[in-house]
Structure prediction request, 211 residues.
Amino acid sequence: MDASVIPPRTDIRGDLRRIADMVSTGARVLDVGCGDGALLDLLTREKGVDGRGIELGMDGVRACVSRGLSVIQGDADTDLKDYPSDAFDYVILSQTLQATRDPRGVLLQMLRIGRRVIVSFPNFGYWRVRLALLLTGRMPVTDRLGFQWWETPNIHFCTIADFTALCAELGGVTVERSAILDHDGRQLTSDATTWRANWSGEQGIFLLRRD
Prediction:
């Protein structure tokens, strides 16, 4: 093995595996905000996808390239407009939506360039977050929201209810599948519209289809 190539990761997060389950074998995939390439690497190895990535941080880009992944540096808020329509079967945005300046605009661009879109994000309506804010009067810090307010990259917190409302508002978008995960990454429900999903879900994963 080439010593410059990082071996496959074995410590894949549970939510990334659930995202991988939503992707068809051999699909064309764009992973937006792909980080160190953990999901792209998983999809390439286990699903045989034709994968591409875009990542803002150069450390992440270098880590991806070291794994032999096709990743470029770019910003979801400004660079998705340069991709042609229907260029990919799936466009994925994992744990990044809340860090974009224009979440609605980013989502619309993803729906334009991908036949299906997968989005995951931490749920600000999770009961532990609500309780921490109620009891302390301070912005909560959790495993999924792991920053103090003054250093966080997250600028648009949303809840599962907020996201489903946005999808309905956009029109022409179908939530084909969803998975609401608890604190341990176990699926609580596949119905994101229930009060339990917004109260008990620490994170949500949504597979969207453009009608």
Summary: Strands lie at 28-32, 50-55, 71-73, 88-94, 114-122, 173-181, 187-189, 203-210.
